[in-house]
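User: Just a sanity check before I run the rest of the batch. Below are the structure tokens for the first item. I only need the designed sequence back.
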């Protein structure tokens, strides 16, 4: 019997078409918004690497008496090496021929590269790029000097560490893969456990999710090497790129994911061709095995694969992804089912309610563990990007739970209405077989009740909703439409939760960020120097260039000041006069003249005192001839 009961012919619930139109437009807007969000996130939010540099030998900014034999970098987690992980430039900005980079013995988190036996006096720049254990590339640069510091034309940070097109395409493919796997596994769990009367309404979204996941996985596999190397997407089809990807751990996991998808598709196609239906227990077991293996290709390649308690973390991440897919993907399946199977929806709703409750329980337990593992401290919850993103996800999950609570309320009402309808049907059937009912006298001239007056062979017996006014929607129908709307709200917020989850996988964990901040430039006790580059233009022909000012260590107290002038061609330029001073307007301190002196191509003040911290104004006067000079300024931050 339909949930709403049978209506009189020609009658229709008020607002039913309006509700359906509203749901349809809301669904379209949700899909459009999700698509636009994917494009924006892929184009504007490059992934932040998860491995952070913990220490280096030589330390950044150090001056060594003798040349080192190796450059050694230690990270917060294990890293993989690329064919061009280290680039070392001499004081003349010429790249040195170094040995083959490798890991320190027994240390997967430490990378090193041998240097030439003899290094000239001056400042060297080391640019590096490695791949963290959770598959994201990380790059940076440092400088060290042999004998004394000298001017160098090498940029302190590599100019291009990423190719924007490659990064955007790779990120879009990652987001699509997350959305597709949630939908695919959610539909599979819904069909296997909730057992809708027919799976026909779910065939289209399941096929769309499967093909999207297959295409996204293939794109990630092709773009993997250019993404790691920071090169153009055009390099994706080169033999060397494909070989490198196939031999790396992230590439092997992507290949495994691709193989699982192809195998699963082949099995489903074979069963459909033979029109065979497997036993329910076997279907549940096969679905669980396939879903777990597929989810493991994510958890084994991201956060859980590095850091503390790796086996437990991978297990937790796999369960978290499976629970998320069962809940959010199952919501989409439920929404499709409710559109067509109102009369048989109550048993499906009951089973999905149990599955959703189990999923939420698993999500809470695994989410708490993963948050503790990623944050490391309460302070990281507000002081790091990972913590702030996690707070945003928690807010979205709270909204999702509220929508789920509404859905559960409407589900319970529908279940209660169905039970009451079955009970009413049983009670209505008793008078038809019991002769006492026929002898109940009518009160006065009023007609007998409908249940007694209608003959047994009447073509349309009265039901629970028949006595309602024609213009009022039956209570069950109203509840059903409210349930649809709350489920749609759950699905919409679920898209946001998936996006935030994907952002978390591309953000440096709070524990690693805090550890990296504590150990940044501390191992040698020499802070990193402050380098400021100020362009100038005197207005005369050939009177343009820039001045590079190095304030070492850039803190309160005694500092050394070094200034180098570059001409319009980018080469070193000799000028007859250069003056450098500092002013702190907020405290009315200065100007303090550094008294830099020319030492054959660069200007130096060995000892210059800055009394208090703050944002100082650097003032540089450059004179290139007797008549042409200019004064330029720039802010410089001085710490304690």
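Assistant: Here's the designed sequence for the first item:
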């Amino acid at each position: 019997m339909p949930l709403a009961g049978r209506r009189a012919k020609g009658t229709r619930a008020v607002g039913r078409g309006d509700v359906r139109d509203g749901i349809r437009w809301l669904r379209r807007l949700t899909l459009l918004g999700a698509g636009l969000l994917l494009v924006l996130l892929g184009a504007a939010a490059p992934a932040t690497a998860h491995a952070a540099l913990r220490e280096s030998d030589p330390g950044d900014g150090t001056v060594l008496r003798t040349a080192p034999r190796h450059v050694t970098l230690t990270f917060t987690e294990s890293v993989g090496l690329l064919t061009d992980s280290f680039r070392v430039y001499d004081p003349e900005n010429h790249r040195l021929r170094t040995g083959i980079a490798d890991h320190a013995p027994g240390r997967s988190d430490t990378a090193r590269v041998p240097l030439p036996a003899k290094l000239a006096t001056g400042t060297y720049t080391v640019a590096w790029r490695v791949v963290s254990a959770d598959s994201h590339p990380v790059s940076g640069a440092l400088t060290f000097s042999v004998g004394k510091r000298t001017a160098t034309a090498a940029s302190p940070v590599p100019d291009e560490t990423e190719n924007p097109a490659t990064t955007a395409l790779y990120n879009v493919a990652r987001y699509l893969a997350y959305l597709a796997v949630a939908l695919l596994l959610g539909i599979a769990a819904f069909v296997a456990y909730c057992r809708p009367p027919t799976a026909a309404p779910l065939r289209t979204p399941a096929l769309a999710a499967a093909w999207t996941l297959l295409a996204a996985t293939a794109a990630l596999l092709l773009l993997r090497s250019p993404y790691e190397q920071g090169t153009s997407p055009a390099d994706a089809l080169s033999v060397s790129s494909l070989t490198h990807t196939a031999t790396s751990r992230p590439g092997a996991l992507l290949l495994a994911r691709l193989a699982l998808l192809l195998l699963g598709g082949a099995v489903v196609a074979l069963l459909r061709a033979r029109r065979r239906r497997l036993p329910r227990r076997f279907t549940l077991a096969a679905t669980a095995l396939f879903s777990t293996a597929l989810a493991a290709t994510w958890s084994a390649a991201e956060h859980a694969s590095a850091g503390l308690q790796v086996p437990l973390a991978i297990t937790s991440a796999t369960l978290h992804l499976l629970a998320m897919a069962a809940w959010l993907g199952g919501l989409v399946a439920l929404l499709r089912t409710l559109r067509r199977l109102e009369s048989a929806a109550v048993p499906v709703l009951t089973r999905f309610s149990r599955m959703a409750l189990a999923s939420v329980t698993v999500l809470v337990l695994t989410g708490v563990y993963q948050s503790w593992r990623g944050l490391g401290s309460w302070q990281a919850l507000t002081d790091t990007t990972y913590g702030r993103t996690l707070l945003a996800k928690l807010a979205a999950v709270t909204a999702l739970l509220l929508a789920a609570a509404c859905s559960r309320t409407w589900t319970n009402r529908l279940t209660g209405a169905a039970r009451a309808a079955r009970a009413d049907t049983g009670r209505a059937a008793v008078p038809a077989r019991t002769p006492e009912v026929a002898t109940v006298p009518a009160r006065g001239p009023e007609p007998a009740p409908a249940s007694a007056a209608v003959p047994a062979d009447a073509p349309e017996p009265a039901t629970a909703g028949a006595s309602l006014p024609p213009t009022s929607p039956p209570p069950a129908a109203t509840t059903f439409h409210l349930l649809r709307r709350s489920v749609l709200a759950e699905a919409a917020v679920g898209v946001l939760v998936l996006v935030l989850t994907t952002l978390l996988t591309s953000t440096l964990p709070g524990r690693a960020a805090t550890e990296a901040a504590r150990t940044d430039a501390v191992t040698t006790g020499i802070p990193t120097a402050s380098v400021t580059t100020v362009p100038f233009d005197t207005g005369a022909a050939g009177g343009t260039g820039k001045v590079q000012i190095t304030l070492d260590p850039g803190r309160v107290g005694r500092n050394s000041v070094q200034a180098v002038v570059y001409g319009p061609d980018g080469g070193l330029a000799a000028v007859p006069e250069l003056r450098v001073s500092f002013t702190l307007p907020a405290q009315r301190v200065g100007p303090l003249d550094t008294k830099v002196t020319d030492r054959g191509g660069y200007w130096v003040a060995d000892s210059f005192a800055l009394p208090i911290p703050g944002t100082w104004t650097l003032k540089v006067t450059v004179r290139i001839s007797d008549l042409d000079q200019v004064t330029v300024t720039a802010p410089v931050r001085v710490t304690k």
